[in-house]
Amino acid sequence: MKFFISVLIIAAILGCSEPNKTSETGKYLAWAMKFSDAVMHRSDSLIYYDRDKPKYEYDYAFLASAIDQLGEYDEKYSDYAQAYIDYFVQNDGTIYTYKLSDYNIDRVRPGLNMLVLYERTGEEKYKTAAQTLVRQM
Q1: Which of 40, 71, 81, 119 could form a disulfide linkage to 64, CB 3.0–4.6 angstroms apart?
Q2: Is residue 20 in some structural domain?
């Protein structure tokens, strides 16, 4: 009986000492929002973030994707990320500044953002633009 009580007490202590996963997630979420807010404060558009000319590239598309994931908590993040993709994707689905003949894999990454936007909005321009990128692969 003493052994059983000892095991129960040890299990209770270990169970109580485990970090609260909800609070950990909340902490990381808060930091992600602070980072995204800093990016959005620094530049009102990701198109001109840290540069003078708009650039359709991997790193900015990756940043847009990260910010967009916070749209689940506040729509302003999704709007900010979508504005970056919308600058380059024309209404007919062509991609401004994109040249299929360049064969630059860094210009394919924004296609993931386009697929997310197509899934979210159903707008054909995103699907058409993503299909253009698939042709390059």
Answers
A1: 81
A2: no
Say how far apart CA 106 and CA 84 lie, in whole Å.
16
Among 31, 15, 34, 35, smallest CA distance to 23 is for: 31
- In this structure, is residue 3 part of a structural domain? no
**In a domain? residue 41:** yes
In 3-state terms, what secondary structure has residue 15?
Answer: helix
pLDDT at 14: 47
In a domain, 22, yes or no: no
Rg (CA), the chain: 22
What total number of domains does the chain contain?
1
Taking only the tens place, the pLDDT of each residue in 51-105 is 888 888 888 999 999 999 999 999 999 999 999 999 999 999 999 988 777 777 7
Domain residues for 87? Answer: 29-136
Helices 110-121, 75-88: crossing angle, 10 deg rounding: 120
Question: Encoding tokens for residue 32?
Answer: 């992600």
